[in-house]
Design a protein that fits this description.
The chain is of the alpha/beta class. It has helices at 13-24, 88-98; strands at residues 5-9, 27-33, 51-58, 61-67, 81-83, 104-110, 117-122, 128-133. The strands form two sheets. It has a four-stranded mixed β-sheet with strand order 1-4-3-2, with helices on one face. Strands 5-8-7-6 form a four-stranded mixed β-sheet, covered by helices on one side.
């Protein structure tokens, strides 16, 4: 059994997940919009373009997501999606793309006692991230 990350967005799910797929090398699977529901009773509140459910394959992991109606949305907290780039260049590329227009930066990219490069931030879509490149500090 493997956990699946499920993210909620405020009307920009498709934009966010497409961005993540491009940056992280993921592959978008099915996308089901409100308009795809068989009848009005099966739709969530909001417009036809809202994403009811979608998936992205990222390595061996699946990331799923949907838009939340405004009255049901709550800001993500208490977790971060952690990514471990395999090189300093890859760290910098991913950080540059995901942290652009970040809503908050909890820790700017820097060296730590456990990693050559580490950062924590919340991206423009509201998703909290943690990037960790151990480099020469990797434990064998």
């Amino acid at each position: 059994m493997e956990p699946t990350i499920y993210l909620f967005f405020k009307g920009n799910c498709l934009e966010a997940m497409t961005h993540y797929a491009e940056v992280l090398g993921g592959e978008i699977g099915g996308v089901f919009r409100n308009a795809d529901a068989p009848d009005p009773e099966s739709r969530m509140p909001g417009g036809d373009d809202l994403v009811m459910n979608m998936s992205m394959r990222l390595g061996n992991a699946t990331v799923m997501a949907s838009d939340s109606p405004a009255e049901m949305y709550s800001k993500p907290e208490g977790f971060r999606i952690s990514i471990a780039p395999t090189s300093r260049d890859e760290f910098d590329r991913i950080h540059g793309a995901l942290a652009k227009d970040a809503t908050s930066v909890e820790m700017a990219p820097d060296e730590t006692f456990w990693a050559e490069r580490f950062a924590m931030f919340t991206d423009r879509f509201g998703t909290p991230w943690m990037l960790n490149f151990e480099g020469s500090k990797a434990q064998s």
